[in-house]
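In these records, each integer encodes one residue's backbone shape. Here is one protein:

___
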Amino acid sequence: MTITIDMFNTNQRQAVKWEGGPLLVLAGPGSGKTAVLTWRIADLIRNTLDESFRILGLTFTTKAASEMQNRIRDLLGENTGRIQLRTFHSFCTDLLRQHGSQLGLRPDFSIITDDKDRVAILGELRGRKDTEIDNPEDSLKKIDIMFTRGIGADKLSDHFPAGQEDSCRALQTIFRGYVEKLVDENQLDFGSMLHFTRELLTTKPRIARQVRTVYPYVCVDEFQDTNLAQYRVLRLLVPDTTANLFVVADDDQIIFQWNGADPKRLKEFEHDYRPRIIQLPENYRCPVEVVEVANRLIAHNPNRYGSKGHGVSHKYEEGAVKFRSYEDFDAEIAGLIAEIRPIPKNRRESCLVIARSNKLLAQIREAMHGAGVGAEIVSRHQDFASPLMQLMYYSLKLANAPDSRSILNKLCSAANRVNGITLSAEDVVAKAQVEDLTPLRAFFSLAAASDTLKTFAERGKVLLCDSLDYPLFVEKSFQELDASSDKDAYADYVDDKDNWQRISVEIRRSHGEKVSLHVFLQEMDLSPKAKSLSKDCVRLQTVHTAKGVEFDNVFVIGLTEDQFPTYFAIRNGETAIQEERRNCFVAITRSSKNLYLSYAHNYFGWSKSPSRFLQEMGLLAG
């Protein structure tokens, strides 16, 4: 259905037509915020067809960015060249690709997606005389905290109490060494993208002014999820308190505090920009019963934003809230399966089961499979899982970063898993040095001795080493892999290929058909990969992975103390409980029709009490 401006309510229309200056749109679940945001961007373009400025839209997932891009394309056709819709990390990557040379980075930098590679960098630093690293994993956690909070080495002492100067200096040395190593090896991880972007915009004011001139309008979706490092990048992009900054947020859905999100961020934004505020309390997704339960729950969180009103349902079709209790978890799962069985198999994709932990979901999946009900845990990951896909992908990555020992190790490992022989990185490096070859050509030469890899290796020499025709290399590799009888032995290959093709379409749509190899690889690494699920499969998700989705039938299970809220939240006090309450609020507002809530008196041999949230929803007496 095509959405027109006449379909918007008064507040939505006011947001779409906002003329200028900072604006905060407080948008609850199901309030049509994505439609408002995309219409806002499209409206700016329609009204300025003779101008050349661009609009920057920032969000937090590639899925959200892609959805917004498709909606805007529906509104404007292909007239979207002036619009950049990016995740924060994708925007930072693009900026560093253009200007990272100012910091010593080449445009063809690699992106590290595996923490083992990051730990290996710290392992290499241990050999320096001035660097003491007792535990690389622990040091990496501290580095990530610095990245997330936007703390540079020069400001680290502000975050250490008196008497810990030695610990501070040690971490400063480790952090500086890690960052220097990234530049030396022309690599970035996700945290350093924000770090280097902030450094670039701070130390190179000419570049900062240029970016602000190009993007006089900036829109941010899901602003409540920003961590401090992201907010500081935003402040550098939009320093003027009267700038055209359009922010959409919901303080009731701040559930990523482990990643640096904080309720204080909205207060900080209000202090820094003094925005006008428009509320979108209308809920067009959830039935009345669900909205009422959600309102009663979230009302128990103190210090919600300003005079924020309750959600108001505009969905009056039949819906239901069911609440059940069971003796133990096995009985709860049996009750869940009994609720799902009557739903036709080809409509079970409309069912979402939400739990606070993967431990509960794993047992549910096992029980459902045993009962003949298809179910899978939905998760996203950054890397390809099939050795067939890894063989092709790491060949491309080594072509882009020929001196990377970690990529060469992974390429050899994938080859060994496909071929069943031992091909070591040491052998490849030795051959390359003796015969004055690149590591990739040396790899292909050794791999060509294998009957299984011979065709692949010979093609690689011609299309990657001789001509760097990576699109044709990919095309021919897929043809060979698809024709191979061995592909059935690799369960992840089909999903990997689907992800590859889906992401490739988006990359070429954004960067053109002749996108360079390094840009292609960077964007591929930034894009999460997900498993394809059939229509007869029930989706199982944690609250954090379920944020942003909606399903007809939502089942929230494990609603007991120590499970939801978790033991750790109870132990850590009221602030943690408030976030758990927001987690529960997010979970129940995924429902567009039916909501099923349940708990058991016993989990894994331990007696549990009903969750306090059930009382707060009005489903249990206090």
Summary: The CA atoms of residues 129 and 173 lie 11 Å apart. The longest strand covers residues 591-600. The mean pLDDT is 92. The chain has 26 helices and 20 strands.
